[in-house]
Design goal:
181 residues, C8orf32 fold, two-stranded parallel sheet, 8 strands, 24% strand
């Protein structure tokens, strides 16, 4: 995670600046929406699991695999003041590996769902006051916070988790990991 890299900082700040002020769910939604719309999935070379720095992924026109997306997402959010963790999981259906990011928020999950809904409604839903995001998916932290799912395979922040049987959770800024089932 190269959060101090000028390329990374300029990119994250340009996206977050659409919702100026203190770090917020609105800034996370803007980052997520931009990456989701512009991401080009390309596999790693056969037999190699390559992890790309965020700045390289930005310079490479947002191209990479799921771990590159997770690293980029976590780096951009950390560079605007958020707290993230990266999950390395094993899919329960295909037994293949997958990586995804979660972002930490304290407070009311319903408020987060309302803000996410605001960002991901289409014009028809806005006109007729129809919610597009009825449920958000997250992991409670056991205190007063949640880890909101930011998987690239979802259509919005807090979208459904992949079906996994085991995951290792890496806290990049803290420098440690934990395994869970």
């Amino acid at each position: 995670m190269d959060i101090e890299n000028p390329t990374t900082l300029e990119f994250s700040h340009a996206l977050a600046a659409k919702f100026p002020g203190e770090y917020s769910i609105d800034q996370v939604c803007e980052i997520y929406a931009y990456l989701y719309k512009n991401w080009k999935y390309v596999s790693d070379p056969r037999g190699i699991d390559y992890f790309s720095k965020a700045s390289f992924t930005i310079e490479n026109n947002l191209t990479g695999d799921c771990d590159d997306f997770a690293i980029l997402m976590a780096t951009l959010i950390e560079s605007i003041g958020g707290k993230t963790r990266i999950n390395l999981a094993i899919n329960s259906d295909t037994k293949t590996g997958h990586a995804f990011t979660e972002v930490y928020f304290q407070g009311n999950p319903e408020y987060l769902r309302e803000r996410i809904d605001y960002h991901f409604q289409n014009i028809f839903q806005v006109l007729f006051n129809i919610s597009s995001v009825k449920t958000i998916y997250y992991t409670p932290d056991g205190i007063n916070g949640i880890w909101l799912n930011l998987d690239w395979s979802s259509k919005y922040p807090g979208g459904p988790y992949m079906n996994y049987i085991k995951r290792t959770i890496y806290y990049p800024m803290e420098g440690y990991f934990v395994s869970s089932n």
